[in-house]
Amino acid sequence: MSQVFEGYERQYCELSANSTRKCTSASVLDGELRKQKLSEIKAGLDDADALIRKMDLEARSLQPSIKATLLAKLREYKNDLNNLKTEVKRITSANANQAARDELLESGMVDSTMVSADQRGRLLMSTERLNQSTDRIKESRRVMLETEELGVSILQDLHQQCQSLLHAHKTLNGVDDNISGSKKILTTMSRRISRNKWIIGSIIAALVLAILFILYFKLTH
């Protein structure tokens, strides 16, 4: 797993959680406070956009096996970011209509109980979105841990295979040494046999010469 990608991922998760909390609080604010909170949220979303692009570049530069997993996680983060942008647009639109709504409230055309119910509904929806984002982050981390465990298992298998190959190589070297020793022994035996043949031949020749000399000596005397 890329440490660079993990660093971007942690930063994005923090930005996403903070933006979600700010959206929840902005939905119940009014006037300048809501505008200020929306400005903070939009700045955070711009930073999140930049992190998404960095994660995309980093994921595409990795090996195919890791890249596929990271790009799948990245698609979830992009969907999460799009949902946050949609929520900001909704709050911004609600802020634009706030003045008209206040006039209606002052004129008694809108019941305060209905407004409170609407705010509670928005709070519940924002909380639900926050929980969903948290669940997606937990699921992504679970997939990341499973991928790391699989990578460790593969590395262990490769290490065992490497050890087996090294052992086989040492065994072959031992066989080669034994063959070389056997060749030396056979060469030495062959030389001894040849030398013995020459010695025996010399002895036989000497005996023949001695016999011929004795016969010649007897015949001449």
Put the structure in a nutshell.
This protein is mainly α. The protein contains 5 helices and no strands. The chain starts with a helix and ends with a helix.
3D structure, described in words:
The structure is a single chain. This protein is mainly alpha-helical and about 220 residues long. Helices cover about 95% and strands about 0% of the residues. It has five helices and no strands. The longest helix is centred in the last third of the chain and has 109 residues, at about 110-220. The chain starts with a helix and ends with a helix.
How big a fraction of the residues is strand? under 5%
Structural class per helix/strand content? Answer: mainly alpha
- The average pLDDT value, as a whole number, equals 81
Termini Cα gap: 111 Å
As residue ranges, the low-confidence spans are none
